[in-house]
Specification:
Plays an important role in membrane trafficking through the secretory apparatus. With 34 residues, this protein is α+β, with helices and mostly antiparallel strands. Helix content is 35%, strand content 29%.
Length: 34
Protein backbone atom coordinates (compact mmCIF):
# COMPACT_ATOMS: atom_id res chain seq x y z
CA UNK A 1 0.00 0.00 0.00
CA UNK A 2 1.37 3.41 -1.00
CA UNK A 3 -0.06 6.74 0.15
CA UNK A 4 0.67 10.08 -1.53
CA UNK A 5 -0.58 13.30 0.06
CA UNK A 6 -0.85 16.38 -2.15
CA UNK A 7 -2.46 19.17 -0.16
CA UNK A 8 -6.07 18.20 0.50
CA UNK A 9 -5.84 15.19 -1.84
CA UNK A 10 -4.92 11.72 -0.61
CA UNK A 11 -3.95 9.22 -3.31
CA UNK A 12 -3.77 5.52 -2.39
CA UNK A 13 -2.32 2.68 -4.42
CA UNK A 14 -2.81 -0.97 -3.45
CA UNK A 15 -0.84 -3.45 -5.53
CA UNK A 16 -1.00 -7.25 -5.65
CA UNK A 17 2.27 -7.44 -7.56
CA UNK A 18 5.86 -7.08 -6.36
CA UNK A 19 6.34 -3.66 -7.92
CA UNK A 20 8.83 -1.51 -5.99
CA UNK A 21 7.62 1.43 -3.93
CA UNK A 22 9.18 3.91 -6.37
CA UNK A 23 7.19 2.50 -9.31
CA UNK A 24 3.89 2.71 -7.44
CA UNK A 25 4.64 6.22 -6.21
CA UNK A 26 5.52 7.24 -9.76
CA UNK A 27 2.15 6.00 -10.96
CA UNK A 28 0.38 8.05 -8.28
CA UNK A 29 2.37 11.12 -9.36
CA UNK A 30 1.18 10.56 -12.94
CA UNK A 31 -2.44 10.26 -11.80
CA UNK A 32 -2.12 13.46 -9.76
CA UNK A 33 -0.69 15.27 -12.79
CA UNK A 34 -3.73 14.51 -14.94
Amino acid sequence: VVFLVKGPIYLVCISCTDEPYEALRGQLELIYGQ
